[in-house]
Write a structure and sequence with these properties.
- 49% of the residues lie in helices and 21% in strands.
- It is an alpha+beta fold.
- The chain has a single domain, classed as Hypothetical protein apc22750. Chain B (Translation Initiation Factor IF3, 2-Layer Sandwich).
- The chain is elongated and about 90 Å long.
Length: 178
């Protein structure tokens, strides 16, 4: 009689294993990934803020240089890219939000980080440049929508023309005040 009680308890415990595995992979693991992803994102934003402050003297504009009084010593094309992927928790939140409709805030911060990081990488390639003009930005998804699994990763490509003025202190002359 004692042996049947022990084997019944063991069978009950073995029956719980699939449920516990499901709970771990469906709930616990995505939450852990979400926490790690949030910490990583916070550290990346801190790095971005510090690097933006260090490169703030190099303006990046989407228009061509229209000031003819500026003498340009060199001009060359620069480009940089950033590939970023959502963690499984963000992907889960985006799928839930996509089901009901509305803004995908979890992907908005992902794209913001990717755009800013790509621009910073481009600026860091030309430390002596006075400006980057004709900025263009392209985005693409990597992984597509195969079997409705969602976006695997997002790439942001930026490119523009880095200008070095003939005299660093000359810079663009402000228009006369009338």
């Amino acid at each position: 009689m004692i042996a049947s009680t022990e084997s019944g308890g063991l069978e009950a415990l073995l029956a719980l294993i699939p449920f516990l595995l499901f709970a771990f992979f469906a709930v616990v693991l995505p939450v852990i990934c979400g926490i790690i992803g949030t910490i990583t994102e916070k550290r990346h934003y801190e790095s971005i803020h510090a690097r933006e402050k260090a490169t703030a003297h190099v303006p990046v504009v989407p228009t061509p240089l229209s000031d003819d009084s500026v003498r340009i010593a060199s001009a060359h094309m620069v480009s940089a890219s950033m590939v970023v992927a959502p963690d499984s928790f963000r992907r889960f939140l985006a799928n839930v939000r996509n089901f009901f409709g509305g803004r995908l805030r979890s992907y908005e911060s992902l794209l913001d980080r990717a755009r800013r990081e790509a621009i910073l990488r481009m600026k860091e390639q030309v430390p002596g440049a006075n400006a980057i003009v004709n900025l263009r930005m392209e985005t693409s998804r990597i992984g597509g929508m195969q079997k409705k699994k969602g976006i695997i990763a997002i790439e942001v490509l930026v490119y523009g023309t880095a200008l070095t003025y003939a005299s660093a202190e000359a810079g663009p002359t402000p228009p006369p005040v009338s």
